[in-house]
Structure formats: structure tokens, C-alpha cells
TrEMBL record:
It comes from Flavobacterium cupreum. Residues 2-100 form the 4'-phosphopantetheinyl transferase domain. The keyword Transferase applies. SUPFAM superfamilies: 4'-phosphopantetheinyl transferase. It comes from the Bacteria. This is 4-phosphopantetheinyl transferase family protein. InterPro entries: 4-PPantetheinyl_Trfase_dom (IPR008278), 4-PPantetheinyl_Trfase_dom_sf (IPR037143). The lineage of its organism: Bacteria, Pseudomonadati, Bacteroidota, Flavobacteriia, Flavobacteriales. Keywords: Transferase. One of its GO terms (molecular function) is holo-[acyl-carrier-protein] synthase activity.
Length: 167
């Protein structure tokens, strides 16, 4: 399974004051707050962790059909990070999701998969023929089979990303 999240850094700066009282405590665990506090670029770390949670949540939602605001239950850990890329894991309710984040000057794009063997099958898709099931979960509507191709759609500000897994 796959999930993704894109964050427009410029729009986030305009609309979200991550430094306001209570913001970090509401969304991030104590360990995640330490990652933010100790990072050379704390703003980037805030949005990196947030996008990891969002991408993993999209898989969790697809698996469980549960829609809930649970950022503290989505627990991030970093495996690797530099100025342009990060990889890590997100644990939620006993399940682990694997993430890769591409860090650009104007946006972050995180992709999550349920199995690391799926990394070789991740594809970016043009947004056309996308429909949603009764739970609001997107899929390619041009694929009528019961095993239709699931996709993950994310948009924020000036950016939109649609990803799927190739067969």
C-alpha cells in the first residue's frame, strides 16, 4: 500500500505558525519534539515529520477505513537525513510504515509504503481518471478490476503529487 504528502513550504510559512504555544505538543511526541529542537533547520524538521505522519496515515486509513485525527499515535523515527532527502519509519497502532522524503527548496514530498520491498514499484502518476471509493480513498477509475490500482493524492498550495505502485 502507498500514501504520500506534499507540503508547500511558502504556504506553510504564511498559514501555520508552528512556533505558537501548544502547536508542537499537540502534534508531536516528546521524542519528535527533541528532533525538532535539535535540528539545524527546525522548520524543515517540523514539516518533514508532519508529512511522514500524513503519508503513513493515508495507508492506515486505507487499511482500517478509520478516519481520525491521531497525530500523536503516528510516531516517527529517522533512519537517514541530509539537505535533500530523508528516510524513516512511522509506527501506528502496532503497524510500521516506511517513508522517503524528497526535500526541495519550495516543497517537501513524502512517500510511505507498507513494505520496504515496494520501493522499486513506486511510480508518479498524472492526475487523471482518479475516483474515490465510499470511504474517500482514491483509485484509478480506468481500472475496473476488483484489484484496481490504488493511488495516493496529495496537494498543498502550488504542488500536487499522485503516486501509486506499479504491478
Amino acid at each position: 500500500m502507498i500514501g504520500n504528502d506534499v507540503i508547500d513550504i511558502v504556504q506553510s510559512r504564511r498559514e501555520s505558525n508552528w512556533q505558537r504555544k501548544g502547536f508542537l505538543e499537540k502534534i508531536f511526541t516528546a521524542e519528535e519534539q527533541l528532533l525538532i529542537a535539535n535540528d539545524v533547520h527546525p522548520e524543515t524538521m517540523v514539516w518533514l515529520l508532519w508529512s511522514m505522519k500524513e503519508a503513513a496515515y493515508k495507508i492506515y486509513n486505507r487499511q482500517t477505513k478509520i478516519r481520525a485525527y491521531i497525530p500523536q499515535k503516528l510516531v516517527c523515527s529517522m533512519a537517514f537525513q541530509n539537505n535533500s532527502y530523508a528516510s524513516g519509519k512511522v509506527s501506528c497502532c502496532g503497524t510500521v510504515y516506511y517513508t522517503q522524503t524528497f526535500i526541495h527548496r519550495e516543497y517537501l514530498h513524502t512517500i510511505a509504503v507498507s513494505d520496504p520491498a515496494q520501493w522499486d514499484t513506486v511510480i508518479e502518476i498524472e492526475k487523471k481518471n482518479i475516483a474515490k471509493d465510499p470511504y474517500g480513498i482514491p483509485f484509478l477509475s480506468s481500472d475496473p478490476s476488483p484489484n484496481r490500482q490504488n493511488v495516493s493524492v496529495s496537494n498543498h498550495g502550488r504542488f500536487e503529487k499522485v503516486v501509486g505502485l506499479s504491478a
